[in-house]
Amino acid sequence: MTIERHHRRLNNGEERIYTYQVNPDGTRRSLSIRNSSGSDSIICYRSKEKKRIAAALLANSSLLVIGEPGSGKSFLAQLITQEIREQGFLVSAPGSGTAKQTFIAIAEDLNIDTETLEGKAMTTQQLQEAIADFLVNNTAFLILDDAHRFPVSIRCWLEKLHEREQPMLLLATYPPARDIFIKLPRIELEPLPNHAIREIMEDEAMNLGIELKPGQMADLQQRTGGNPMLARRVVREEYLGLEGHALDHTQWIDGTPSNSHFEE
Questions:
Q1: Rounded Cα gap, residues 228 and 190, in angstroms
Q2: Res. 23 pLDDT band, cuts 50 70 90
Q3: Angle CA(131)–CA(133)–CA(136) in degrees, nearest 5?
Q4: Of 25, 44, 84, 87, which residue is most buried, by most CB within 10 angstroms?
Q5: How many CA atoms does the CB half-sphere of 153 hold within 13 Å?
Q6: Is residue 34 packed enough to be buried (19+ CB in 10 Å), middle (13-18) or exposed (0-12)?
Q7: End-to-end CA distance of the chain
Q8: What is the DSSP secondary-structure string of 37-76?
Q9: Sequence-distant (≥ 6) Cβ neighbours of residue 96 within 8 angstroms
Q10: For 198-215, what is each residue's pLDDT tens digit?
């Protein structure tokens, strides 16, 4: 993964610095948009939530962040992970995988050996115990995205950690109202303000090499419902000449299997 920065001058004369994450497959993801002066950051539209969450974690508290698909939970998790690591703390932010893969990722993030004294790979139960024992004696933070997909085994393990006052951040879409999810204080991500959605749409249009007239921008913006992912999508649909539907952000249905994705 590499980081690229590009300077661009807008029609109104303002200069912006666009920062992108370039993945090994060549795809790019926008990380930030800043004025060239650096005085007015417009990248992190969730800066208020970011500050509150980071402060809560550093105060040894736990939180649940919920929001609809595309609302920016994963990007928020990345920013918080980066901020806490920059302060010198251990952080585990595992990606998606089976239950065992998740525990292996956490162990590796925290520099915990994943093999027994006999040189054999630890079982899921052994990994859970090794991580829990480590967290009792060391300061570390767990940042777990897509937590609504976790099977009961992971959620029960997290409950036990929570009882030991282990600080953790869970981010989820429509989580079930049970176990760990009803025990954590929650923050619900609100729709982004209009100016932020316009910035995202302008950035996507610039990436695609198209110019949206004010009327087009206004019509497309009505379909986003303040959702940053939809803001980019409607611009791509316009670029491809596809007909969209008004207020389609309200039609999202979470059809992701909650357990099968993580079963061993």
A1: 11
A2: confident
A3: 110
A4: 84
A5: 17
A6: middle
A7: 29
A8: TSSSB-S-TTHHHHHHHHHHHHTT--EEEE--TTSSHHHH
A9: 146, 149, 261
A10: 989 988 888 888 889 999
- Tokens (6 digits) for 125: 């139960």
Q: Which tokens is 148 given?
A: 């609504």
Angstrom distances, CA of residue 94 to CA of 63, 78, 144: 17, 11, 7
Distance of CA 120 to the CA centre of its chain: 34
